[in-house]
Amino acid sequence: MNTVSKSLALVLTGSLTAGAGAAQAAPAPADAVIPVKKSTLVNLVDLLVQRGVINQDEGQGLVQAAEQEAVAAQAKAESANAARGANPAGNAGTSATATPEDAQTAAEWAGEPANAAGKTGKTKHVAYVPEFVKKEIRDQVRAELKAEVLQDVKRDAKDEGWGIPGALPEWVAAIHPSFDIRVRFADDFYGKDNAGGVENVGLDAAGNFVGPYNWLAINRAATGNQAGLTTQVSLNPNEAILNNQKDRLRLRERFRLGFEANLADGLKAGVRFATSNINNPVSNDQTLGNTGQSYQFAIDRAYLQYDFLDERKTNWFSLYAGRIINPFLSTDVVFDPDLSFEGVAGSFRLPFNRGSNKLAGYKTPNPTARFGINQGQQTPDSLFVTLGVFPLQDIDVSVNDKWLYAGQVGADWLVWQDSRLNLAASYYEFHNVQARRNPVGSHAYDWTAPQFVQKGNSMVAISDANTLLPNCTDTVGCLFGLASEFKVFNATAMFDYAGFGDTHVLFTADYAQNLGFNRQKILSQFGTAFASTDLQPRTKAYQVRVDVGVPELRRWADWNVNLAYRYVQRDAVLDAFTDSIFHQGGTDAKGWVMGLQYGLAKSTWLNLRWFSTDAIDGPRYSIDTVNVDLNARF
């Protein structure tokens, strides 16, 4: 028993023996019995029960025993008073068995008022708890409350930023950093009967050119003395032809560091740095194996953003300018998750259900938390229109600049509790991206060659031997560009069902079609010039996908699984901007995707994905890809 318990037990002992008749004349020892009122004893017993020294049954037993002792003490007091009244002189030399104080205390335990009629003497009883008992009770209570109070204070200090505004410059408190890192194990398994490839010098069994070709490498040589597809294939096959037969394991890393600053009400500025292949807009991955070199570290985003919120915190519109996040509700069928947009955009919202309180407890999740899906920068229960103008390539003559003009209309609706429906129809028009054939003896349209492609889109020769350029004698072609225009219609639907608590089920359907493909126009301009396909319209793409699990992995044992089937014909979307992992990037591919995400610790998770893909048209081209990603962020 601890010190406080001993002290309280001493007090209880005093209450139980208050009427025992201890001699009042004798000097009081250190542990003298102290009579107490019933209310005082009950309070002390309650305190012992609350502190866990005794249980409830034991406490009730102590109080009952004290009551019985009090009745006995009262009886003794009444008997002594009666005897004293009958023989007053006899009290002089005898020791009293019960004092007036005992009678007072016993009367209070019996429920009678002090100094009631019939009681002799006039006394006033004051309950007393020794000072050392009070001190020890205070010390114990203080010790037990200290940790809890400190936690509350620290929480309030963190939430309210105590001391920070005064201790730091205002601009420091307004900046919010973010960080994430990903280490990837990427293993590619190619079909052993794939046609073409480096081992077959890009030829199929019948001797036809099938590649698959690295168009960027071939175009880089177009102005030199080794220009031409056949020349490059014979001299530099490892550069000019893509690998499609040798399995490959790569270790890759992505590191991103961002800062966002609140400049004024609704206005903020942001910048994000990332490891990057500067020439690749759809990947921030750095392949390991550069021990003798340093990583490239580039500005991935730099932007201004303004959000207009009314007095009810309703977000009516957002404006973006600079190198910005993808502002559109979309999937990786059209835009790779790593793609940043350059230009200006605005998203305008018309809220509905403003009188409802169902949004009060809803917290909008990170729109890109599920890999490959972008739920858009929207607010639930609103209709929205998003418009954007994005320069893709600046050409010396401004009328030849390459642009993306984009528009989207849709609805974001909490249809039931936290279950959310997103619908969107989009139109993306890519201006000046298609190839134009060079006039005889001229390089006038060299600028129409793409800055970046992956693979899949139909390609035509911008210049070949028939253009009579001194450095181009290749009859197949020296410089190549996109055969088709790209005017893409895209319809997207997402339903996030939240009827299973923290476990959500997200259904996604995505459809895209290129309305800009014109076979007759291509043939009329390029005639018999080389085309990488038969130029039949292959302009449709779709994906269906289901995700089950938590919307965003934040802690240990959070999980999410997904399954998708994707079908992307060669000219359905621009191959430069679509997913860079499915079929190793590009279009003309179909197949399955399976994924598993699992939380390993706070803000740390594993992302395992498996892709099984095949070419839709042309020679056989199969790839199975396994990606294991270890992710962390703060």
In short:
This protein is of the alpha+beta class and 634 residues long. Helix content is 21%, strand content 34%. Among the domains are: 132-168, no CATH class; 175-194 and 244-434 and 483-633, Porin (Beta Barrel), CATH 2.40.160.
How would you characterize this protein structure?
Residues 1-25 form the signal peptide. Residues 79-93, 106-118 have a biased composition (Low complexity). InterPro entries: Porin_5. Keywords: Signal. The chain is an alpha+beta fold and 634 residues long. Among the domains are: 132-168, no CATH class; 175-194 and 244-434 and 483-633, Beta Barrel (Porin). It has eleven helices and 21 strands. Strands 1-2-3-5-6-8-10-11-12-15-16-17-18-19-20-21 form a 16-stranded antiparallel β-barrel. The model is unreliable at 15-28, 90-97 and 114-121 (pLDDT under 50).
